[in-house]
């Protein structure tokens, strides 16, 4: 199948590539750009492990083709820490609230939670659970994830995280 040229920004870097029209965005991110922090946990658009931001809003990158991201701005879990390595407030909150066990769902959970926090600075439990409906966790029982999202949302409003923990631990 003939490849199509695309140009997009991923985690602040502009990429131009030729991709097959059938290539999913998550495949492109992982296999072409090496952004393996974005995971694939299903083939039915159910799990949310592949969640990234497209122009600042969360999307499931297994549910869109790379060619559809042409001209857009994509942010992955690997692009949210500060330039000095300080964790994003939501990453820090997940870490401090023990909101992960195996960690497979965590990148998608964090990307979805940042999207939520942009609209709800002080979300109640019901709001968090509703917004995370499309993100599945097989380990935690969700209780600490809810706490983390509430803490992370507050910290996003209050200002940058003071943490100097190295990025990538999410
Ligand atoms: S891999 Fe995208 S929703 Fe499961
Ligand atoms: S921590 Fe294992 S799937 Fe969520």
TrEMBL record:
Keywords: 2Fe-2S, Iron, Iron-sulfur, Metal-binding, Oxidoreductase
UniProt cross-references to SUPFAM superfamilies, sorted A to Z: 2Fe-2S ferredoxin-like (SSF54292), CO dehydrogenase ISP C-domain like (SSF47741)
Metabolic or biological pathway, per its Swiss-Prot or TrEMBL entry: Alkaloid degradation; nicotine degradation
Pfam families: Fer2, Fer2_2
Keyword Cell inner membrane: no
Domain 2Fe-2S ferredoxin-type: 4-80
PROSITE patterns tied to this protein: 2FE2S_FER_2
Gene3D superfamilies from the UniProt entry: 3.10.20.30, [2Fe-2S]-binding domain (1.10.150.120)
One of the record's GO molecular function terms: metal ion binding
The keyword Signal appears for this protein: no
Superkingdom assignment: Bacteria
InterPro entries, per database record: 2Fe-2S-bd, 2Fe-2S-bd_dom_sf, 2Fe-2S_ferredoxin-like_sf, 2Fe-2S_ferredoxin-type, Beta-grasp_dom_sf, Diverse_Oxidoreductases
PANTHER family: OXIDOREDUCTASE WITH IRON-SULFUR SUBUNIT
The protein, known as: (2Fe-2S)-binding protein
Organism name: Mumia zhuanghuii
């Amino acid at each position: 199948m003939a490849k199509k040229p695309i140009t997009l920004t991923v985690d602040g870097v502009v990429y131009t590539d030729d991709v097959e029209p059938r290539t999913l965005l998550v495949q492109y991110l992982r296999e072409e750009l090496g952004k393996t922090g974005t995971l694939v946990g299903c083939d039915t658009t159910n799990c949310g492990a592949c969640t990234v931001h497209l122009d600042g809003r969360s999307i499931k990158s297994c549910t869109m083709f790379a060619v559809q991201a042409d001209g857009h701005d994509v942010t992955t879990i690997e692009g949210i820490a500060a330039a000095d390595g300080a964790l994003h407030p939501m990453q820090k909150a997940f870490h401090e609230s023990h909101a992960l066990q195996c960690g497979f769902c965590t990148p998608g959970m964090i990307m979805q939670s940042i999207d939520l926090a942009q609209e709800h600075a002080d979300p109640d439990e019901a709001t968090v659970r509703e917004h995370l409906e499309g993100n599945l966790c097989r380990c935690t029982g969700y209780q600490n994830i809810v706490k983390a999202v509430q803490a992370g949302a507050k910290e996003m409003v209050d200002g940058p995280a003071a943490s100097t923990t190295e990025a990538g631990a999410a």
